Backbone:
C-alpha cells in the first residue's frame, strides 16, 4: 500500500526547505547561465573549456545547497525527535521501514527533481544562445552525475546521522562534523606529527581521504573524480540508516544520541578530537622563532585544557 | 482484545515496568492508575507501538503491534498534550486522518459544531482545554476500536474537565470502543471505568472490576455515646474519625461486624456512597491517590 499519509506528513514539514532547494538550483544553473551569457557577450569568452565547465561546476550556491540538504534531512528525521511528533509518528499504523523509505525517497526526490530540472534548464539556456558551441567542451554526463552523486552521498550521510542522533541540533552538527571528519583528523594528526618533529607530509598523500571521500568536493566537477566512491558510500550509508531507523529505541528521542551503545565511542572521540583541536590552536599562536620545545609545551597545554572542557561538555551531552 | 503479556521495560538502566500482565476486553473502559512515575505513560506508549518492550509481548486482536503495525489502525493514542498537531489546520489533519483511519468526517464535523469549535486556523491557536477536547474528538472520529488516553484531563479547569469526561462516557456508551485511561485521579475514573489496573512501582499492584468492587464493601458512618469501641475498630477499616463520629469500611457480607455495631447501640448508623478512593485509602494505605 502506498503510504500517501506519510508523504503528506513529510511534505507538510519539509516543503519550505524543498522550495529553498529549488530556488538555489534555479539560481545555480539557468539564472547563472543567463548572467554568464551576458558576461560573455560583453567581455568575450576566455578559456572555452574552463568557462563552460565552471558554469556547471560548484560555486557558493552549491555550498548553500549542501547546507539545505543537511537541513532537509534534519526536517525529515531530527525535528520529529524534539517534540511529541515522534510519538505521533511512531503510533501511526506504518512499519518503520515504510516510514524510513518514505522519508528517504521524499528527501531524495526533493533533491534530484529540482537539480535535474535546473541543470536541464541551464543547459537549455546555453543551447538556445550563441554560445551553444561551448557545450562541446562540456562532459555533460560527468558534470551532471558527479554533483548529483555528491549530493546523494551527503544526503545519505545526513540521514544516517539523523537516525543515530536524538534531535535536530545534534543531527545537523554531527553531520557537518562527520562530513569533514576524515580530512579534519588528517589535518589534526599532521599538526600533531609536525609539532613532535615527524614528517607529516606523507599523510596528505592519502588520496582516498583527501579526495575520494571528501564528499563536498564532488560539487566541483572540474576535478577528476571516480563516481564509484559516492555511489558505494551513498548506498552503504542508506542501508545503515535504514537498519538504524528500524532499531531506534524511541525512549531516547530528544537526547544527544538514540543508541546508548554509541556513548563510549563519542565519550572517547569527542574529547580526543577536541584535545587535538585545542593543541593545534595553542601551538599555532606560538611565534615561529620560539623553538620546537615551546611549541610542544603550548601544544600539550592546549591539548590538556581542551580535553578537560570537551570531557565536561561530553558528559553533559551524554547525560552522564 | 488488547493483551499485555509479561511486559518489562528498562530506560537508562531503570526498570520502569516489571512483568506486567493484563488484558482489555472490547467495549470496556479500563482505568490505569498509579502515582507519577509508576509507568502509566510508558505502558500506554508501548501499547501504541512507540516504545518496544524489553521483555514480553503486546498484542491487539492477537497481532503483535511491532511485527504487524497495520493493526494500529484500530489503536489511537492521545498523549497528554496536542503538540504534535499544533502546526496542522483542521482541514489538513482531517485529510491526513482520512488517509490512515476509517475516519468519519461527518461525525467529526457534528462534534466540532456541538462543541462550538472554530473550523478555521491552526490547532495551535486553540486553548489548552480546546486542544484536549479536539484530540479526543479526532480520536473518536477515527472509528478505531481502542483509544488510549494519557491523562486526558490533566491541568484543565473543572468546566472543560467535566465536558471531556462526559464526552468520553457518551462515546463509550454509543460505540463499541474500548478506552484505556491513565490517570492519578480516582474520582474521575470511578465514574466511567469498568476495570481498574493499579500500577505501583512498575508492577500491577491490583486489578479491580468496578461492579464487583462496590458490591464487596460498605461505607458506613457511625456515632456512639462515647468514642468508637476498640473491638469495632479492630474489625473494620477506619476511613476517618472526628470526635464521636467515625466513617468505616466493612465487607458487605461481614454480618459479624454489623451485629457488633448494632449491639453497641450507635446513636448514628447510616450507609454512605462508596468511592474508589475510600477503598484505596483503606486497602492500600492511600498511597496511590494523588490529588
Residues:
Amino acid at each position: 500500500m502506498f503510504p500517501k499519509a506519510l508523504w503528506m506528513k513529510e511534505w507538510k514539514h519539509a516543503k519550505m526547505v524543498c522550495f529553498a532547494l529549488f530556488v538555489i538550483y534555479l539560481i545555480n544553473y539557468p539564472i547563472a547561465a543567463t548572467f554568464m551569457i551576458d558576461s560573455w557577450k560583453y567581455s568575450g569568452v576566455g578559456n572555452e573549456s574552463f568557462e563552460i565547465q565552471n558554469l556547471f561546476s560548484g560555486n557558493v550556491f552549491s555550498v548553500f545547497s549542501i547546507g539545505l540538504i543537511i537541513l532537509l534531512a534534519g526536517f525529515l528525521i531530527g525535528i520529529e525527535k524534539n517534540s511529541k511528533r515522534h510519538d505521533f509518528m511512531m503510533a501511526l499504523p506504518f512499519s518503520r521501514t515504510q516510514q524510513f523509505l518514505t522519508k528517504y525517497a521524499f528527501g531524495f526526490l526533493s533533491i534530484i527533481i529540482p537539480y535535474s530540472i535546473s541543470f536541464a534548464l541551464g543547459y537549455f539556456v546555453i543551447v538556445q544562445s550563441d554560445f551553444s558551441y561551448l557545450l562541446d567542451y562540456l562532459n555533460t554526463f560527468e558534470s551532471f552525475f558527479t554533483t548529483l552523486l555528491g549530493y546523494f552521498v551527503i544526503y545519505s550521510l545526513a540521514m544516517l546521522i539523523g537516525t543515530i542522533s536524538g534531535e535536530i541540533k545534534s543531527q545537523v552538527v554531527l553531520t557537518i562534523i562527520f562530513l569533514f571528519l576524515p580530512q579534519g583528523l588528517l589535518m589534526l594528526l599532521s599538526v600533531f606529527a609536525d609539532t613532535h618533529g615527524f614528517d607529516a607530509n606523507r599523510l596528505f598523500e592519502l588520496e582516498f581521504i583527501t579526495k575520494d571521500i571528501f564528499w563536498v568536493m564532488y560539487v566541483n566537477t572540474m576535478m577528476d573524480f571516480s563516481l564509484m566512491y559516492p555511489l558505494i558510500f551513498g548506498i552503504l550509508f542508506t542501508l545503515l540508516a535504514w537498519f538504524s531507523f528500524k532499531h531506534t529505541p524511541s525512549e531516547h528521542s530528544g537526547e544527544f544520541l538514540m543508541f546508548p551503545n554509541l556513548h563510549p565511542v563519542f565519550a572517547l572521540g569527542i574529547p580526543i578530537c577536541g584535545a587535538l583541536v585545542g593543541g593545534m590552536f595553542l601551538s599555532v599562536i606560538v611565534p615561529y622563532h620560539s623553538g620546537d620545545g615551546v611549541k610542544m609545551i603550548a601544544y600539550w597545554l592546549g591539548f590538556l585544557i581542551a580535553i578537560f572542557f570537551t570531557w565536561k561538555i561530553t558528559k553533559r551531552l551524554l547525560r552522564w | 482484545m488488547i493483551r499485555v503479556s509479561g511486559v518489562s521495560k528498562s530506560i537508562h538502566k531503570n526498570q520502569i515496568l516489571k512483568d506486567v500482565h493484563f488484558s482489555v476486553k472490547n467495549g470496556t473502559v479500563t482505568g490505569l492508575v498509579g502515582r507519577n512515575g509508576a509507568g502509566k505513560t510508558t505502558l500506554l506508549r508501548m501499547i501504541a507501538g512507540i516504545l518496544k518492550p524489553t521483555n514480553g509481548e503486546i498484542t491487539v486482536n492477537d497481532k503483535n503491534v511491532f511485527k504487524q503495525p497495520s493493526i494500529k489502525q484500530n489503536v489511537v493514542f492521545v498523549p497528554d498534550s496536542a503538540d504534535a498537531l499544533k502546526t496542522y489546520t483542521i482541514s489538513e489533519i482531517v485529510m491526513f486522518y482520512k488517509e490512515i483511519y476509517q475516519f468519519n468526517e461527518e461525525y467529526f464535523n457534528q462534534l466540532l459544531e456541538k462543541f462550538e469549535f472554530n473550523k478555521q486556523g491552526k490547532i495551535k491557536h486553540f486553548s489548552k482545554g480546546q486542544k484536549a477536547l479536539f484530540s479526543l474528538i479526532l480520536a473518536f472520529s477515527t472509528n478505531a476500536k481502542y483509544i488510549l488516553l494519557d491523562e486526558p484531563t490533566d491541568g484543565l479547569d473543572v468546566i472543560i474537565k467535566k465536558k471531556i469526561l462526559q464526552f468520553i462516557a457518551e462515546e463509550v456508551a454509543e460505540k463499541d470502543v474500548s478506552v484505556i485511561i491513565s490517570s492519578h485521579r480516582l474520582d474521575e475514573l470511578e465514574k466511567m471505568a469498568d476495570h481498574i489496573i493499579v500500577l505501583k512501582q512498575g508492577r500491577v499492584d491490583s486489578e479491580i472490576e468496578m461492579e464487583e468492587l462496590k458490591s464487596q464493601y460498605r461505607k458506613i458512618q457511625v456515632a456512639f455515646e462515647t468514642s468508637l469501641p476498640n473491638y469495632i475498630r479492630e474489625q473494620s477499616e477506619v476511613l476517618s474519625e472526628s470526635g464521636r463520629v467515625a466513617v468505616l469500611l466493612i465487607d458487605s457480607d461481614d454480618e459479624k461486624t454489623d451485629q457488633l455495631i448494632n449491639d453497641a447501640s450507635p446513636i448514628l448508623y447510616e450507609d454512605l456512597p462508596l468511592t474508589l478512593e475510600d477503598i484505596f485509602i483503606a486497602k492500600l494505605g492511600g498511597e496511590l491517590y494523588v490529588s
About this structure: The first helix of chain B runs from residue 40 to 47.
